[in-house]
Amino acid sequence: MIPDELAREMESHPAVGPVFKRLLLELERADDARSLERVRIDYLGRKGAINALLQDIRNLPAEERREVGRLLNLLKSRLEQELEIRLERIRERELEESLRLQKLDVTLPGRHIPYGTRHLISTIIEQIEDIFLGLGYRVVEGPEVELDYYNFEALNTPEWHPSKSLQDTFYVEVPGGNYRDVLLRTHTSPVQVRVMESTPPPLYVIAPGKAYRHDVPDATHSPIFHQVEGLVVDEDISLGDLKGTLENFARRMFGEDRRVRFRPHFFPFTEPSAEVDVSCNMCGGDGCRVCKWTGWLEILGAGMVDPNVFSYVGYDPERWSGFAFGMGVERIALLKYGVPDIRYFYDNDLRLLRQF
Amino acid sequence: MRVSLQWLSDYVDLVVDAEELADRLTNAGTSVESVERVTGGWDGCVVGRVLEVFPHPRADRLSVCRVDVGGEVKEIVCGAPNVRAGMLSPVALPGARIADGKLVGEAEIRGVRSWGMLLSEKELGISDDAEGVMVLEEGMEPGTDLHLALGLEDTVLILEITPNRPDCLSMLGIAREVAALTGQALRRPRIQVYEEGPPAEEEVRVEILDEEKCSRYVARLIDEVKVGPSPWWMRKRLRAAGIRPISNVVDVTNYVMLEMGQPLHAFDYHLLKEGHIIVRRAEPGDRLVTLDGVKRDLHPEDLLICDPGGPVALAGVMGGELSEVSSRTSKVLLESAHFEPSGIMRTSRRHDLSSEASYRFERGVDPDGCLPAADRAAGLIAELAGGKVRPGAVDVRARSVAPRRLELRVERAGRLIGITLNKEEASRILESLELKVVGISEDRLRVEVPTFRPDLEREIDLVEELARIYGYQRIPATLPRTSHNVGFLTREQRLRREIARVMAGCGLHEAITVSFVPGWWLEVLDPERRHLPPQPLRLRNPLSEEASMLRPSLLPGLLEAVRFNLNRRLVDVHLFEMGRVFLPLEGRKLPQEPLRLGAVLTGRWLPKPWDGEAQDCDFYTMKGILEVLMRTLHVEDWELESGEGPPFLHPMRRGTVMLEGKEAGYMGTLHPRVAENLDIPGAEVMEVEVAALVEAAKDLPPFKEIPRFPSVQVDLALVVDEEVPAAEVERVIRSAGGDLLREVRLFDLYRGAQIGKGEKSLAYSLVFYSLERTLREDEVREIVEGVVGALAAELGARLR
Fold first, then answer.
1. Residues A153, A212: one domain?
2. ipTM
């Protein structure tokens, strides 16, 4: 509190010395706020020890009076500072002690805040939408209960095609009417026709939605499933553009390191047609059970819009060309997230829903 | 389609290995599903020559053979009746393993030591013939490994043939693809027929009565045939193709079908009346027992092959049992015809009967292929069954088919594919597929399409051929060059995502339930159809009665999901779904498909924490969620109107969701009776029209100035009659409170001893402020007095 030299001076001073020594002693003993306050009152108070000594200096000779006065004033200001410091130190200690009593087990679980999830199928549809939004596409929709015309005829599907049978397509009974051509769409492709009918080219659209097929549910079939259809019509669209677009999509969806393969295929409403595979992520393309030892996973069907389809909607096939593609959302979910059974998606088992 | 590479190499040199070939075919559109290695499934067997045969000293039916197994002569005991000296036969030496996995050893049979065994075809697993030991053809060296001797080691490609490529349903068709893809030449089989005897037309007459369904019928007559087993090479090839060998005559028809793609049928000529073939549709009363032994009633649309006595075959699908070739057959009428695809498809479906023949006819067989196939088969029958082919084919043609001619604009084709293509390359590709370029002008090729490619009808079909053979993998990947496409979500699409996100954010899990529901749901929810449509849409061909109705509401699916989870002891279920429901529209074919938002809560909302109490889901939990939703969408004008509501809700705990004064849905507690019927403990439910939410949502909530002057809060505890709705109290407070009253919040509801029976106490906290100045205490007091006065006057409320 006081530099050594000064302390020695005070200590050895006949008048200040005893008070100073007592003060040092009491100060050391004061270990809480209350006893410090006591010290403050006892020494610095109006009737305190220092004031009492100051009263006494009147009786001293002049030069001694000055000396004692100087010492006492120094002591006073130093003591004030010291008390402040000690008080602060004690408060700190007391706070620490009280905090110690507030100790929590931070490993206990937190309060339950309700949280929900999106369905994996919805999430994947949004992912697909976002990829194509970035490529300049818009999202369009069409009805799930459809007419044969849109689902088959205008898509160049011959009248006798097996997919039209009662074993493949659900037909709908409309109350008050006996129609044979109302059905649950078997793919999202009819949206293509509807959009082209109502919108002049150029067109860059995708159409996500539900589709239905007369399949008894098993691990890979569901009577209800989701598809995303894509359609581009513009001047000078080429098979190369389809390839570039879908490669882009496949890498964004499945990973930049995936290889993409285009194989010629057949669909009634595209010509030329293609099936698109991505390299298998389970085995890295070496062959495994998931990819049936081929190293490839089929993810979508595509092709250049057949000129017949254009003529159904009144587009001039000499001026416009385009491509279309369709993919199964459940299949993508199976491949990307490893969900092994398509039926899981419609059970709505909380143990599945909570995972994604 | 199973393609043996051994067989395929008859028609084209295979210059790449099986894997590479599989890749090239796959990349050209003929997908190879798998590559199968064929071996005999046995081990350690060799060719042996039987030198001598002695009777077994102690067994009548056994013989002891001395067999040359290559440099060594072994004694082998044999029980086969056909064993004779001089024959070549397969031998299993001690240590060999035969087809059923059995290990062959040395054995002593009734006192005679046997060094191995002579094998039947059954023991080799190559047919069901266990009658005697297999007789090998001359020319094989004793001691030769049997695999080598039989030429059994082979590779089979399993191909997926798309429906547009019927030409690929034959070895020659695949060979043509392979030739085009590997730059090799195609070799056709040499067709040779030696004809003898009187002309066929003297004994065969063919009449086509339905020219629409049958454009051509070629018949050939082969006399003096001896029906027996086919030689090994043919049986081997049929087996590799997945067809069971039957007899030389039948095997030839199958062999030529596999080779050339033309289905053939062999009749026992003597079992046909007058050698007279009539092709016609079924007439009433026509019946036929097909080769599979099924007696079939025929449909007037079925095309039949008949003789004057009635049907003898279901045209293009299956022959009849009565005219079947058998071991007694000596004279064969061979049919090679062309039938119209869709008729065959319908007949095949109608009878639930498909065959290799119908499979090909359905997809389209080369209309010009009848005659060569008939000749090829007649030649082979003569060769293998020792018959004599009668001169001339009886060839009745309803119409002739000219090869199609197409124009190809080469530059345009290149642009559609995305490559630069010149006339030379285009011609080269087309001609490699046996398309003929018959004219070249400026930028155009005139292309003649052979009749075996019915799928090539238009210019665009040629473009596909060019792209396919050029190779999809070689086409540069580009993006459309145009710049006038701008991608965005519509307002509705954006808000739908927002709604789903809010619901999930509130703690609900998104469900997707199926659109089909059982009809009984309507009875459970709304037997009098006060809320749901009286006649929902139904499926004409549901998978089951349980999935026969198209949902008119999201509720059944959501409650079904609750039940599913409860059955698995997952009792706290909080679900929402956004999906379409189906409501019939009077006088319209297609229904309305409004998108709805539905939600269901059951069990606990908050599980019991370790230091407190669990909180159950109740009416106000769901209402709170609805409030968050409205708040996030900035829907200002909405309320839950009490009173009427769907009959499946608790009559005292339900409300109609009103958006901008219009009905938009419902919310409430499931009626306890409904819950009991469904065997669930109870649930809070709601269903709202998404379109109404979207319409009521505010995209641009107006900015409200934040006060700079202190606000004044006043709490009021009011006693009102139990019947007075809280919304009424709040409405009166707000209207009497005027502009300076900015917030009204209910913070307590009390019923009990401190107030009268049939009364409740509502405590509100009122916040006043002005944007211009600090409010004076007396002016606030004055407003509050006004509010209290209005409450007393309008609702009989008093301060507590």
1. yes
2. 0.87
